[in-house]
Amino acid sequence: MLKLNASVAGELAAKGSLGLVSQSGSLTASILDWAKQNGVGFSNVVSLGANTSVDLAQVLDFLANDAHTQSILVYMEGITHARRFMSSLRAAAAVKPVVVMKAGRMPAGSDAALTHSAAIVGADDVFEAALRRAGVVRVRTFTQLFSAARCLASRYRPVGKRLAIITNGGGPGVLAADWTNDIGLEVARLGETQRASLALKLSPAASIGRLIDLSEEASADHYRDAVLACASDSGVDGVLVIYSPKPTCYPNADPESIAKAVIEGSAKLSKPLVACWMGDDTVRDARALLNAKPIPSFRTPESAVDAFGNIASFYQNQQLLQQTPPPLSTLATPDAEGARLLIEGVLAERRRVLTEMESKALLAAFHIPVTRTMLARSATEAMLIASQLGYPVALKIDSPDISHKTDVQGVVLNVMSAAQVRDTFNSMLTRVKRAKPEARINGVTIQPMSGKPRGREIYIGLTNDEPFGPVITFGAGGTMIELIADQAMELPPLNQFLAHRLIERARVAETLGHWRGSPPVKMEALEQVLLRVSEMVCTLPQLREMDINPIIVDDDGAVAVDARIVIEHAPQNTQAYSHLAILPYPAGLEREWPMKGGDLYRIRPIHPDDADMLQALVKSLSPQSRYFRFVSSMTELPAKMLARYTLIDYDREMALVAIHTDRVEQDDGSYQEVQRIVGVSRYITNPDQTTCEFSLVVADDFGGQGLGSRLMHAIMDVARAKGLEDIEGLVLSNNDTMLRLMRSLGFKVKPFPEDPDFKLCVKALQ
Description:
Layout: E1 15-22, H1 25-37, E2 42-47, H2 56-65, E3 71-76, H3 82-93, E4 98-102, H4 116-120, H5 123-133, E5 137-139, H6 142-152, E6 162-167, H7 170-182, E7 186-187, H8 192-199, E8 207-208, E9 212-213, H9 220-231, E10 238-243, H10 255-266, E11 273-277, H11 284-291, E12 297-298, H12 301-321, H13 336-348, H14 356-365, E13 374-376, H15 379-389, E14 393-398, E15 411-415, H16 418-435, E16 443-448, E17 456-465, E18 469-476, H17 481-484, E19 488-490, H18 496-505, H19 523-539, E20 543-554, E21 557-560, E22 563-567, E23 591-594, E24 600-605, H20 611-620, H21 623-630, H22 639-646, E25 653-665, E26 671-685, E27 691-698, H23 707-721, E28 726-732, H24 736-744, E29 748-751, E30 758-764
Parallel strand pairs: 1-2, 1-3, 3-4, 4-5, 6-7, 6-9, 6-10, 10-11, 11-12, 27-28
Antiparallel strand pairs: 8-9, 13-16, 14-15, 14-16, 17-18, 17-20, 18-19, 20-21, 20-22, 23-24, 24-25, 25-26, 26-27, 28-30, 29-30
């Protein structure tokens, strides 16, 4: 390395394992100056200006594959291409901890919003949802960047958010407990067995309740015993150890010996531990001992709790990253063609806002339960419809120019008789025309009351963000929606896991269990509505905004009472799902093929759950086959490589696996079907975005079955459909079987000038 510094950022950074990419030159200089004073080193530092030809996504790709980079720090202000950014960010976060500081938080809402959803969702909310879905951790200050990176680089991975707090002072412990609850974590309580055992070892002044308060008489042994008690308790996901300096009248309170005891106890801990040695001069040496070990140490309880929060968020977000939902769920197939025809009809009339009846028809096409709704254009017609539907009924004004019906007194509930329907119809028209004289009025819709007196009102919405595209929102519904502003959000596509997590993040989730004498709601019904909305979003790029508000849900199910949908013309000549920031699992590529002898195997795209089967394939290969594929003598894939191969972004690459089902005899003589991967073909798009590089491996016991040829044809079809022009790959010169296959498939086999041990195989796709 030349170690040439051609920037204006000052001195070169110290050597380390952190990769830093920043969209601000001045902040980069500040970070480097701070890092120098705090002994933080970097593997790479990249500062991107507004006019650089290298973008954030390309730097993330580089850092993800850089062997010297263990964690990635990102300071960003904005992006221009959401799909490329999300693809690179997800790929990086799958193999290394990524911590992001995002600036430029914008106020929520839009003056041009035609629905509640678009009015209450801000740009920063969407960025938060995107970063969470990408499996990264977001922080607010650049000092938190480094503490989060250090915590995530430790060998520990939490399985929850329950934090045990060990302290020698009540005040600091209470501060930590309060902040734990404020940021959505839980204070862990020791189990009865651990609590009783630990109490015998502590001083009489100690208390073990919400906090493990060792008292001012705490010794090094007391701290060690408390850490070990947390280590053996399955109800504890992480440990915070707080030391507050004590007067000299407490001879046991030696900060250094206590630090050594905590370090000793942490060696037997399989869960994260963070430390907070408060004060300055008297704890300086103890803090140095902790910093020399893999124990993140902080000066305040709140900072230490934040650090554990970052670790817990990382674990939660990594679970979201693992989800690769298809565009359609396993529920009944929707009437997508009928939905498209309805939308085309509205757009042909040069309208963007669907009426309530049209909106409900669109929901019904995707099997979302809706209340039966009929339009009345006169008071007499309203009475006839109400008699057919049965009382009580609800009357609502129907106008494409009125977004919020209640604002103009355009909703009346629990109408009980024909005479009341007539009077309500006439008075509603009078009020609305007075309030909105310019509004076009189609009439008044009549619908039966929901029949769910103990139901909860929630809303599900859709808004479109620039640049992330469609965002699904969920929260408390009803007329107070904008005031309550309870919105959780997620990028489509969704599966049941993502739908459940989305519900959990909303404040209204607290009311969905036993609530004021009402039984818990049917959560599965609510999740299915979210899955159906996700299907709508994936299938219909014309959707711009949507409010389903309220949806009334109880222990019997869910029904949409009102809906408002805004549409626009979809972009022309675009590939499927190009409107989404995250490409769905390409379930349409699944195929079954016959083998010689009549057996069958299935070819489908790879997904994260295939990790064990892929590892089994690699282990089963002969040493020669493994060397031909990986040019390495390794006997199995390292964890990071396994994650990189199974958690892929289907926009930039594709991996197709051949699945064969074996019948394995059990000890009792019965047979069990066991699936195994017997072949993998893969391509990765090159940086030029026009060519791609392929790889292929087939299980040794499935050679000669035509499997390699079929996998290559399948992967080339996918690359061709993506618009790639050429596919190429390097094959070892002594791999005669692979070279024969390449020639039979029409590849040109050329010498590779950079290494005579390889041949370059190239084929035009278009």
